[in-house]
Sequence to fold (418 residues):
Amino acid sequence: MDRIIVEGGRILRGDVKISGAKNAALPILVSALLADGWNTYHNVPNLQDVQSIKHLLSHLGARIETEEDTVRIDAGGLCDSEAPYDLVRKMRASVLVLGPLVARLGKARVSLPGGCAIGARPINLHLKGLSQLGASIRLEHGYVEASSDRLKGGDIYFDIPSVTGTENLMMAAVLAEGRTTLRNSAREPEIVALADVLNEMGADIHGAGNSLITINGVSSLEPAEVSIISDRIEAGTFMVASVLTRGDVTLLNCEPAHLSGVIDKLRLTGADMEIGDKTIRIKGSDEIESVDVKTLPYPGFPTDMQAQFMVLMSVAKGLSIISETIFENRFIHVSELRRMGADITVSGNSAIIRGVRMLSGAQVMATDLRASASLILAGLVAQDKTEVNRVYHLDRGYEAIEDKFERIGAAIRRIGPP
Ligand code: UD1
Fold:
């Protein structure tokens, strides 16, 4: 497996073009299942997770063409309704095919995703919602089997505002008979992006981005041509990198409005920012102030930025507390950061971080995507060499991350297997 080697101590300067958002691309590519004919998607990031979803869609019978960052999908030949264990195991977001398959084919058999490194992550809310739309649900042999003639609109309440749960049910409800209301829905920009695409296809969705979403079912949808929104987590990762290295980095093609929680916290650390329409210039200050952070559903501070922010706090002046309220086991990066000299104590869902003057390079490994990114960030400010193993996780969600860092001055390289 590839490794990434980072030599710390370089100041990052220059422009970084932010790619299309992974978490918007995945549900939007899946939405192709809802119509016959060629859909066209621009600004699709070249990521392992995008490959996985394309693999799953072609397994289901869709035709797929890719040219640079444009992906075209025609689900006219949709023939299989099963998402097998091997495909779902690689990426939990595969569960997003459940709603569209039931809506389109009247049945779906999708492997249960099981636990993952950052927590149990059940899909009970997806299933409860689908059954409220009239699907009958059985759990057998590790699979969810859902079936229904035509789904019927229903009134669905999410106990927790689940992102993929909201997306799954939105995609199921667009072809249902009658009106569906989703209450306490997730409000992430990726949900708005999906609703925009579905409306472009002829759906009738109102309120996406608010906790109350109303969907008037239609009998069929048409293919669409759309562009994927910019990745706010990739943007946030490069913002932290600039502040960490006391750099001066300008993000291009980003969406500042989607980053307000991150921008606010980074300002409090002393960073200086110039915010444009689709750009953010961010400069780090000599001294990084400690700031407390609590992860929350959007528009709160994103859990997907927690590990990266922890690296920043590891070298800040003083003490900070980071509370993780979304996932129960999302501190797996802590032990690796400690091996690099960070002073972090975990107590329940909080991490107490005492800033140290310097981190020291080490061989490290992480078992989830954002934790891997945090180790690269740590390597950028650590003394000497850091070797990040299991780069597989990074490639799931960051497009050409080492090239982007190298172009703004990092000493970083990828090494293939011996
Ligand atoms: C999505 C994102 C992921 C991000 C997360 C939280 C994608 C592809 N992934 O994941 O990057 O970290 O949102 O912002 O968009 N829950 C239940 N039952 C359910 C569903 C969720 O209890 O049926 C719980 C989860 O365990 C978690 C919380 O709800 O504690 C939020 O999870 P959810 O929003 O569903 O995360 P994902 O959609 O899997």
User: Anything to note?
Assistant: The CA atoms of residues 296 and 302 lie 6 Å apart.
